[in-house]
Amino acid sequence: MVPQLDPTIGSSPQLSPELDPMAESRCADVGADAMGAFFNEELSFPPVHANFASSQEQLIRFSKNVHDNVHGNIYLDPVRYVTLNNLVSYLGKKKREAIGVNGGVTHLVYPGAVHSRFEHSLGVYWLAGAAIQKLKQNQGLELGIDNFDIQTVKLAGLLHDVGHGPFSHLFEREFLPRVVSGCKWSHEQMSLKMVDHIVDEHHIDVDFEMIKKVKEMIVASSELTLPKGTREKHFLYDIVANGRNGIDVDKFDYIVRDSRACGLGCNFEFQRLMETMRVLDDEICYRAKEYLTVHKLFYTRADLYRTIYTHPKVKAIELMVVDALLKANDFLEISSSIEDPSDYWKLDDSIIKTIEIAPNQELKESRDLILRIRRRNLYQVKLWQFCNEYTVPKENLEHFKDVTPQDIVCSQKNGGAILKEEDVAVSNVRIDLARGRHNPLESINFFKDYESKEKFPIPDNRISHLLPACYQDMIVRVYSKKPELVGAISEAFENFQLKTYGIKAQVHETPEKKKRRL
């Protein structure tokens, strides 16, 4: 019997072990799995949801309890609905990544920064449900929110990242463009294929319209989003992946989860935004008094990028991982699996271990790079920061072109070691407030109080003169792949700055002991 998946409430058949791939792992992983969440067979629900409709109370009687180390108890819907959840859980556990959202190798610099993308997906699932339930509680009759909408939004939260490859964005942004000419591949697009694959492969009887809307919500913030006029209840598409202004429960979860995993403080309180949000003219808006809370969301995200995701050592390791994958690609055909979901789901971070233990001579260069990472013999780093008074004027940021190894090599003066492009690695880091060079708050509408029916934007100068006037930073980092070339590459890098900007834009010169390191 195939478990049914629909938004109605009723009795549900128990899953057989064959259809419940989490059954075995639940027994093995309780209290021991690094993901920090486990399934609890108790089907109770906390009193905090006592104010929901009786149908919701009936629904939660059949819920499964998952304990998450960020949000506490998370409650999954009845078993027939969890059919799909369990299948995705299985894939999610296979695609385990450190700091699941943005920093696939961050744990090699911040040892405690380890959690899986499955945990993040559970968190987004939970917050998506909480957000739409809050809207239903406050404006349910006005907005026409029904159980179908609730289940669709929650399912979109659970599935939104199922298309990610190994090492998170590194695979999509750094590796694939160098092996696939004109690559247009994206993890959002792959998520759509993975959703169809999961449903078809496991013969899940799911409402076609629900899956269609789930896929639309997954790509709502990407270039694949549908034209606005083709969607009903546009505000539902603002919850999981908000392409309108960037405020969504995906960010709510990974900001808090990643800050906690890295041992950083986080004074952004997403609960305040979820408590005060309401829908005006088919758009989720926020109370005007929460303007600085919204700003703190984007500022905290930018701080995570600067401090954690783009840490100089993290970027050095990423460059080495990309080089290792590039050298192994011809032999292992890593990039050949990106179109077929039945092959792609098998690809995860363990590809590095595969390379590391393989005896094949074709993988020797890749193995040597991984060994260097293990021994902390990383590409040597020199930092140059701009987008301030010493560097690129903000009006020129739009026309900034990425610096390449060729730019550095061509800036070398005569004499000394002769540099080659393969000796140099360059990392061009863009850090912004989620909207490029633009102020994200310009796209957000607010309301005065709960009796108000009018929405309006708020200019920065109406709030504070301490808020930033520039919304994007540019950082160029140059790495030497050989310790003995640190001095020569540092000198060429300085020459490049003088030639491009007329000044040395770097904060300080490369330490002499780094130049002498052999």
Report on the architecture of this protein.
The protein is mainly α and 518 residues long. Helices cover 42% and strands 10% of the residues. The strands form 4 sheets. Strands 2-3-4 form a 3-stranded antiparallel β-sheet. α5 packs across α8 and α9 crosses α11. The termini are far apart.
Summarize the structure.
It comes from Citrus sinensis (Sweet orange). This is HD domain-containing protein. The protein has 518 residues and is mainly α.
Summarize the helices and strands and which ones pair or pack:
Layout: E1 4-5, H1 22-29, E2 37-40, H2 54-60, E3 64-68, E4 72-76, H3 79-94, H4 117-143, H5 147-159, H6 169-179, H7 187-201, E5 205-206, H8 208-218, H9 249-261, H10 270-276, E6 278-280, E7 283-287, H11 291-309, H12 312-332, H13 341-344, H14 351-357, H15 364-374, E8 380-386, H16 405-409, E9 424-432, E10 446-447, E11 472-480, H17 486-501, H18 512-515
Parallel strand pairs: 1-5, 7-10
Antiparallel strand pairs: 2-3, 3-4, 6-7, 8-11, 9-11
Helix pairs in contact: 3-4, 4-5, 4-9, 5-8, 6-12, 9-11, 12-15, 14-15
How far apart the termini lie comes to 66 Å
Instruction: Find the structural class using helix and strand composition.
Output: mainly alpha
Beta strands, count: 11
- Within the largest sheet, what's the order of strands? 2-3-4
**What's the order of the H and E elements?**
EHEHEEHHHHHEHHHEEHHHHHEHEEEHH
**Main sheet attributes: strand count, strand direction, barrel closure:** 3 strands, antiparallel
Mean pLDDT over the full residue set: 78
List keywords for this structure.
518 residues, mainly alpha, 3-stranded antiparallel β-sheet, 18 helices, 11 strands, disordered N terminus
